[in-house]
Every structure is written in C-alpha cells, then in structure tokens.
Amino acid sequence: MQMSQERTTCSVVGGGPAGMVLGLLLARAGVAVTVLEKHGDFLRDFRGDTVHPSTLTLLDELGLGEEFAEVPHRLVERVQVQTDEGVLPIGDFRRIPGPHKHLALVPQWDFLDLLADAGREEPSFTLRMHTEVTGLLTDRGRVIGVRYRAPDGSDGELRADLTVACDGRRSALRDAAGLRARSFGVPIDVWWFRLPRHEGDPEGGLGRFGSGQGIVVIDRGDYFQTALLIRKGTDAALRAEGIESFRRRVTAMLPWLGDRAATVASFDDIALLDVRLDRLRRWFTPGLLCLGDAAHAMSPVGGVGINLAVQDAVAAARRLAGPLRDGTVGRRDLALVQARRWLPTTVTQTVQRVIHTQVLGRALRGDIPLIGSGGGRLPLPVRLLQRFPALQAIPATAVGIGLLPEHAPDFARRAPAG
To answer: What per-residue confidence (pLDDT) applies to 17?
Structure first.
C-alpha cells in the first residue's frame, strides 16, 4: 500500500485547548493549518473543565462569547476554605478587573466543539479526528512534518513548514525531538470523583487541608467535582485499604458530605491523576514548537493549566502568523514565543511549588493541623483575607487572569454572530 503524502503550512498535533485555539487563530490569519487529534471525538471525561476570565475575554474578542454563553455551564465567583466555624472566602472573582468576574465550569468537549465549529468556517482550517501521529519527519536535523495513522488504519505523511506539539504532558513529539524537561518533584497525587450536591450546599470552590489530608470540592450544579489529595505514590496502598476507608477520609474532612460518600460505590468511580510539574528548558527545535502541557506540565493547583495553554497558543499565533504566511518561519520566531511565555510559566510553577512544599506537602504529612479545627488560630493569610476582604482580589486575579494575559490579535477578531 502506497503511503499518503500531503502538505500543509502548519501541522498542530493535539486537539486540546492549545491546539484548537492555535489552529483557529492561524486559520483566521490565512495560514493553512491542519490539526491532528488521535481520538474520534471530544467526548471524554476531562478533568480540566475550568475556563478562566482571561479566556472568556478572549472568546469575546474572537466573536464567540455569545455562543459560549449558550453552552450549559456553572459560574464560580468565590473560592473558600472550610473551618469548624463555617466557610470562609479566600478568593473573590467579583473583585477582579475585566468584564468576566467569575470562572466558568463547562465540559471541555463543549468548549472544544465550539472552537472546532469556528475553525471549520475558515477555508484554510482542517481538523482530522481519529488520526494518531506516530512519529516525526526530519531532514538534516530539521522537523519537516509528521507520520500519522489514518482512521482506516493506513499510514500517511503530512509535511509542514512548522509542526506544533500540543499533545499534552506525556508528549510523544517532544520526546522524539530529544527535548528534555526539568522535573520538579511533587508531594501529591489526586483522586477525582463525583459527589451529589444538595440545595443549600456551599457554592463555588471549597477546600480543607491539614492533619494528613486534603480535599477540594467544585460546585458543578447538581454535583461536586471532588479532589481528594493523597501522598505521591500511595494510590495502590490506599486502594488496598478498601472503599470504606476512602469514605471515612471524605467524612473526616467535610462531615456534611458524609452521607454522600457512599454514592461512590467502588474504586472504579475514582480516577487517579498522576500529578506532574515539569518544564522544557527549550520549547523548540528547528521545525517544531511545543506549547501547553507539552512544554510545561502544570499542577492542578489553581486549575490554571488550560488558561496557560490557551495563552501560549495566542502568543504563538500572533508571533508566527506572518512568518508562516511568508514561508520564513525560523528558529528566532520560535525562540521569541518561548521568551514571551517564559516568565508567566516560571512564576506560576514557582508559586505551585511553594504551595506544594509549604502547604499541601506539610498537610499530607500531618505537619500542620486541620485548618480551622479545635478552636485554634487560622493561618495568617486566611486571617488577613477575612480582615481585609479587598485582598481577596489578589488570589482571584492570580488564578483568573494570570501574570501576562494574552489578547486576540487583530487578524483573529470577529464581531459576535448575528
């Protein structure tokens, strides 16, 4: 069987948030772009369902805000901590600058379908589902495209002036290109599961940490998306203790959830997130650029991974659209994308590392008591946020907008439909 050989200007590997945003923006610049997604659809149980205020503003700029508003979603305006005395706010998105003063929680497949539909309106945009990239094409040290397996099982080659790896934290392309990541040790893994939410329950996001445990619940309307923090590498041992032990852990942290822990019938209802935190020293090699988790795997702390990936994509589209149209994209262009996104990535990961070591790691080791328990004093940051509520804008802005929010370039902006 003869191998199919095709050509595009930019091949984007991975149809997640970074890949879909990059594909849409480049197509609106008139660049021939092909997005390759190995799955046949977006209907998978994503855990990263948070759309941040800066991304909501980007959707407005792209003319997609009204369409997004029609997708069923849940708004989160506050982040809180649970104490024995009640629920205390620590982050208030209503105090941040900009038009969107909330997080939006939406199934990621709906978000990706929205971007895919917008991309299909552009004549230079191609999305290939159920197309798995199997390797890189190289010529004299330069990446010139990818090998892929088509839906019918046949093999093909797609040559491109630039290949962009948006294939996640376990990126096969960055490994194939010999790009090495610096890994930062993390003390936690996460168990994800669902618990029913009742009328009158706390709204928004809520967490509690200390005495060897940690839990976060995220209001999704009729259920809580729940994260139980466990010490790194203890998944198998904890599962061996049995499901009743798990239920006791949940009840010990948030007693008002105790009657609902039994809805988790078995460990089949609990998904393990193997938490990673790493960053490529160099995000590119001639002909290849890594973005999002492929360049910098983020911790779930703050839920900022999607936001950073989208911002990477916007910065890349702005810098690369012209050189791609002109056929002049080179090493300097790729280096400038990394330079643009290096500071916000590094600062965000540094903050996550501090939270890992000084809060979560100590909490899971039992080095700090359960926050707000036994009549003890609350940690100083929590006390300050209660005494001076305006300070709650600081963590909310850091999470919701970030250090360097990116805005849609002029060539990608559209007025709302209709």
So the answer is: 94
| Cβ count near 282 (within 10 Å) | 13
Residues in the chain: 418
Going through 150-204 in order, the beta strands assigned E by DSSP cover: 155-165, 181-183, 188-196
Confidence of residue 84 (pLDDT cuts 50, 70, 90): confident
Listed in sequence order, the residues at least 6 apart from 226 whose beta carbon sits closer than 8 Å to its beta carbon are 192, 193, 194, 195, 215, 216, 217, 218, 250
Per DSSP, the three-state class of 213 is strand
Q: Tell me the domains of the chain and their CATH numbers.
A: 4-71+106-184+276-359 (3.50.50.60), 188-275+361-398 (3.30.9)
d(CA 418, CA 413): 15
Strands 155-165 and 205-210: unpaired
Q: Where are the alpha helices (DSSP H) in 303-330?
A: 305-326
Q: Are 36 and 148 in contact (CB under 8 A)?
A: yes
Report whether pLDDT(160) > 70: yes
Distance separating alpha carbons of residues 8 and 91, to the nearest angstrom: 45
d(CA 143, CA 290): 12
**CA distance readout (Å), 175 to 47, 171, 178, 334:** 24, 7, 5, 18
What integer best gives the mean pLDDT of the chain? 93
Whether residue 241 has pLDDT greater than 70: yes
What whole-number percentage of the chain has pLDDT above 70? 96
In 3D space, the residue among 245, 275, 257 whose CA is nearest the CA of residue 215 turns out to be: 257
Which amino acid makes up residue 330? G
Task: Summarize the confidence of residues 340-366 as an average pLDDT.
Answer: 93
- Residue 48: predicted pLDDT: 64
Q: Which residues of 91-113 are buried (b: 16+ CB within 10 A; e: fewer)?
A: bbbebbeeebbbbbbbbbbbbbb
Contact, 311 vs 54, CB < 8 A? yes
The pLDDT tens digits for 168-200 are 988 999 999 999 999 999 999 999 999 999 998
Check pLDDT > 80 for residue 154.
yes
Give the integer Cα–Cα distance in Å for 242 and 209.
Answer: 22
Dihedral angle over CA of 405, 408, 409, 413, nearest 10: -160
The answer for residues whose C-beta is within 8 angstroms of residue 349's C-beta and 6 or more apart is 184, 277, 279, 296, 298, 299
